[in-house]
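User: Fold this; tokens only.

Assistant: Input:
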Amino acid sequence: MKELMIGNAALARGLYEAGCSVISSYPGTPSTEITEEFAKFNDTYCEWAPNEKVATETAFGASLRGKRSACCMKHVGLNVAADPLFTMSYTGVNAGMVICVADDPGMHSSQNEQDSRHYAVAAKVPMLEPSDSQEALDFAKVAYEISEQFDTPVLIKMCTRVAHSQSIVEKGERTEITKEYVKNPQKYIMAPANAIARHPFVEERTKKLIEYAETSPLNRIEDGNGTYDFGIITSSTSYQYVKEVFGDSVSVLKLGIVNPLPVELIKKFAEKVSKVYVIEELDPVIETHCKTLGIDVIGKEKFSILGEFSQKTIAEAFGLDKNENICLDTNIPVRPPMMCAGCPHRGMYYVLAKNKITVLGDIGCYTLGAMPPLNALDMTLCMGASVSGLHGYNKAGDGQTEGRTVCVIGDSTFIHSGVTGLINVAYNQSNSTVIILDNSITGMTGHQQNPTTGFNIKGDPAGKVNLEALCKSIGINSVRVVDPYNLDECEKAVKEELAKNEPSVIISRRPCVLLKYVKPKKPLSVNKDKCRGCKRCMKFGCPAISFRDGNAVIDKTLCIGCGVCAGLCPFDAFECEGE
């Protein structure tokens, strides 16, 4: 049966058909849909974990028990999962285990452009890289075969374009796989003596995997209609761009196994062509490998190390930008990202900006508080870093920063890795005020449940973390909850907590306006007779409010009737319809 699928859905289907029984993940664009799609298979177990490290360890436990498993994350999530990954390379697996990681060249929704292939090289585990939806499905099945044949976890690397583009997929049937668990301390207990004995296994496994890569159909040479003037070594979405630009007119070595890379296959290809180009997004991983083999290739001197490629960038690199057969990009007006009309985070940010408070930020949709006109954030680094960073900032401030600095962190991010930073604050007693922006959901990645919502991935009731009780249990005595729509309440809380000589937490709690159960109120309107054109409302940054002909104007298609602007206006110009 054939079906049009995005790459992430196809990968989920492939995991399912391969007999994967357990998936644990943390949402992160562009990987999120893999887990969401897998959760639709009711004869498997699927969950959102608090973070990627927990997810990876959960999948490892399922593999140890004898069930094929997987975990999914974005590229920066692999940083969090690196601790178990490197040691799992030594232990190997029981039933097959796959780690799906999605890179984000171009940083469409990420804080960096790191290349996950380096993790595969450093951890000495195989990595497969599909270039379309059908390969995503097929590679998932092969990944489990490799995992069990070579006793290793296997990484499948997606990227934004493969994860979210659609192509035709031929679906198959599910195969159930169960392995017997046998107690084996020397293999699975990584105390130094056992780990020392496992390291030679890893090195020997790498040699065997290289031999496998030499003849695997996942790596293939495509002769370009007998033309060998030059050849291209490529992988992933870059392969699609090459084919769209050149069709079958050039010879291509298409790599599906990007770690370990083959040796003889690459040499064989290089011997067939007069000149070799390596086209790969981000870092020169394949290029460096080829040069190590003594092959003269053209790579990053011609193709950028920055951002993602396209048909246009490939065509222009070869001087083909005027070819009428090449689909070039068109100029589209930039639409800057911004918080939604009625976003509960905006009220707290307005208060912080108004009082000129230094704010250390975190990862989530609330990072948009850095945008004009609020310009409320001073730093954003990685998940949970706001809390730890605030502690360090105040400890280094010699008392001068206390009372003038806070951090903000979302509810899901707080559970992910903020709580450990707060434990540090409580334990080492920095006079720090942490603001948890609790919008009752994981917002940035598309409304996934988390341990604070009380529901699991399928929407069924689940254990619920009480943030107030959690903060108090770790030693924070001053914990209070405010409504971010109430600006006076927020300002009072911020000033009072900053004035205290102790660690404190403010929970700014109101659900995301885009949640289905949040019903918007009637939109407000502006009484032009009362509006004085002071533009105070424009400092709030609500996209539903604009300024025309000397007056504020409300776009009723955007306004959700939160009423915060009415509290801002000193002239009572914002009115509810019907008043």
